[in-house]
Amino acid sequence: MKILHIDAFAGISGDMTVSALRDLGVPEEVFQAALSALSIELPECRFERGLRNGIAGWRFKVKGHDQEEGSEAVHHHHRPEEEDHHGEGHTHSHPHSPSHSHSDMHRHGHPHDHGHESSDSHTHGQNHAEIVTLLEKSTLSPAVRNRALALFRRIAIAEGSIHGVPPESVGFHEVGAVDSIADIVCACAGFEYLRIDRISCGELIEGSGHIHCAHGTFPLPAPATLALLKGIPFRQVNEPWEHITPTGAAIVAEFATSFTPMPEMSVESIGYGLGSRHTPNRPNVLRLILGKRVEKNTAETDEVVELRCNLDDLSPEHASSALEAMMKAGALDATLTPTVMKKGRSGWILEVLCGESDAQRLSEIILRQTTAFGVRRHRLERMKLERHHRDVSTEFGNISVKVGLLGGEVIQESPEFSSCAEAAARHQVPVREVHSAALRSIANT
Known about the structure:
By secondary structure, the chain is α+β, with helices and mostly antiparallel strands. Helix content is 32%, strand content 29%. It has helices spanning 14-24, 28-36, 89-92, 119-123, 128-136, 142-163, 178-194, 223-228, 246-255, 316-328, 359-369, 417-427, 431-443; strands spanning 2-7, 45-52, 55-62, 79-80, 102-105, 198-201, 204-206, 210-213, 216-219, 234-236, 258-259, 265-274, 285-293, 300-311, 333-340, 346-354, 376-384, 386-394, 397-406, 409-415. The strands form 6 sheets. Strands 11-6-1-13-12 form a 5-stranded mixed sheet. A hairpin with a 2-residue loop joins strand 19 and strand 20. The longest helix is centred in the middle third of the chain and has 22 residues, at 142-163. It is elongated. The relative contact order is 0.15.
């Protein structure tokens, strides 16, 4: 299993993520192809080698959008009240330093199909619907396109909640800028290229103090950033600048499945993405760590209690209700099996699996809600597959898939019915079509 850990010890932004992916080993051609798939003209994008507090890495820059505040903050019109003015002038004063190594990605683009006359009209001030159209008309792979759409959707929901408007009506005066479109598309392309099975994120930190943005002077975190970080743990530190940008927050919310210290892994490669600030003590760097899960030879086991009873005078409707009550009450699993009882009468066998702590409570529910006069209880050792969920890309959007592993080997992958049903309802197609599309995507990944 391939694992990626996001070590955002100094925060995270879109451009730092792209830079770290490049340093991790994603070829520059992957990013260039992603930008070329957009039917708009973009300024020149390039990667430059540089140093932050002695740490070497790549920096992703969009021509005409290089600002001293760095870390994508100006993409979102956020200026800290206390600025660090060392900026890029420091690295350019050393003609032989690593910071001068760079490569350009010349973006010529496709013919315009929007009726727009210039690149600025394509990007600045776009609303969410226009960005959706831009991505849907692109030649990006379905997986990259769907991820980019999901990221912009997250940001639109966050901005909409702040401004009190529907997501579709949000005007991207912030993330609609050319640099953020480039950041999001390139980040999605980089993650897709690596074919990662699981992404975790370490502790997130945000600065303190205030910023100047489109809404006036505002305390950190910025409003959109805070909305995007709902449900995600982070803490503030006594450093008066923005560490987490809205795009950075959207990336961890979309891609990370857990927020924990670095999991046990065999490290294969490390990538450092540089921001533009030269900050004291904490280098303006994002670190990505790619590795493989350390496989264990033993299968996962646990202990469960099986509750079992025969029901010979319960209607199918009441039997079904009892089964539903078991699941709602916290059973691990519950089944009803038709059987023939004594004297040839039809009946049911109710079997319930639960944890030791739930056995007494569930037994009482069975006795109260069924016609049973007793419940047999057996303690069992259960061997089970390690499991997790991943998303696969289909023409109906991302579908959640349950993955089962034995000794580190994937031996089961099954589309989640609820995810298929939701996608089928959105697209007004039969569930089996979505399920089949998910199976095809599983076979191809």
